[in-house]
Automatic annotation (TrEMBL):
It comes from Streptomyces boetiae. Residues 296-353 form the CBS domain. SMART domains: AAA (SM00382). Gene3D superfamilies: CBS-domain, P-loop containing nucleotide triphosphate hydrolases. The keyword ATP-binding applies. This is ABC transporter ATP-binding protein. InterPro entries: AAA+_ATPase, ABC_transporter-like_ATP-bd, ABC_transporter-like_CS, CBS_dom, CBS_dom_sf, P-loop_NTPase.
Amino acid sequence: MIRLDKVSKRYPGQDRAAVDRLSLDVRAGETVVLLGPSGCGKTTTLRLINRLIEPTEGRILLDGEDVTRVNPDRLRRRIGYVIQQVGLFPHMTVADNIGLIPRTLGWDKRRVRERVDHLLDLVGLDPAAFRRRYPKELSGGQQQRIGVARALAADPPVMLMDEPFGAIDPITRERLQSEFLGIQAKIRKTIVLVTHDVAEAVRLGDRIAVFTEGARIAQYDTPARILAAPADEFVASFLGDGTAIRGLRLAPVGTLALDPVVPVPPGQEPSASGSGPRAVRVDAEGRVLRWPGPDGARDLARVRADQTLYDALDAMLRARQDTVAVVDESDRPLGALTWASVLRSLPAPGGAS
Ligand SMILES: Nc1ncnc2c1ncn2[C@@H]1O[C@H](COP(=O)(O)OP(=O)(O)OP(=O)(O)O)[C@@H](O)[C@H]1O
């Protein structure tokens, strides 16, 4: 979908190239995060893709077409662009800001209005309450949502996002990240997103390109593999401490082979044999209550199948138990995980899984 082929950018008067022969492929529908320290060339790379900056050498292909041969205005209609400072026009309403590109494309008023309302809905803002407001009447997080809506206005297949959640408080930032994931699951754009925040990269990226100076790729892989096996000292130190624990957040419990459990309804007793599947006491509706035996008086550690290994270990630690019941949305048992089975499921460092 997007291919950078030995692309370099040398700014006038600089001895070193800001981007030095970078080759990078981004597949259709995936989110690739460019991650790296300040000044390593992330923003320059992003702006080369939509030709806000012209490359000194190399080729950039969008769907096989060399972008340097496309009229820049036409190119930018195919590429949405979201930046940290948002850049909303202060004298225009929310609706006018979002509808800007569709209007320049000559859409009629009604189509623009419908598109604006649809996008406000998509980014979680009530159209009736927000379409007539001015940017100064919005919180930082709301402005950021409008920035995303505006970039999506003409339904471009590609989105470039430069620190889109950078200037926002941590709680709103987490919420915007969740919304981003929800929206991307629906619309499946091809996204290149710049951040220097490791947690954000791990959360949002299907793949992460870790850059060193000159936009040289230190590692380009899935978050899980980068966390499990950093390619070198630079990547390891940039990721910082806690990589193994962070990796656990990427693995949903439901993808593991669970140990079977046998539900024991009220009035019945678990079978006495010591071997075989573990019994779990359930109520009349089949919802898990507790383990039988000496542990049974205590709260039972439980996680839903859509939670992660991180949550499973956290539940075990909090309950001080070495087994966690895995339940469905109605709290009915699906199986169990032990501390040992979680450890066994982890990818080996350097391994392929
Ligand atoms: N217009 C410019 N003229 C000269 N040098 C520039 C220009 N823009 C960027 N640079 C230099 O190019 C290098 C890469 O900058 P770039 O903004 O791409 O890095 P970045 O990884 O996005 O950094 P940050 O995370 O701090 O935003 C830096 O050394 C920077 O000083």
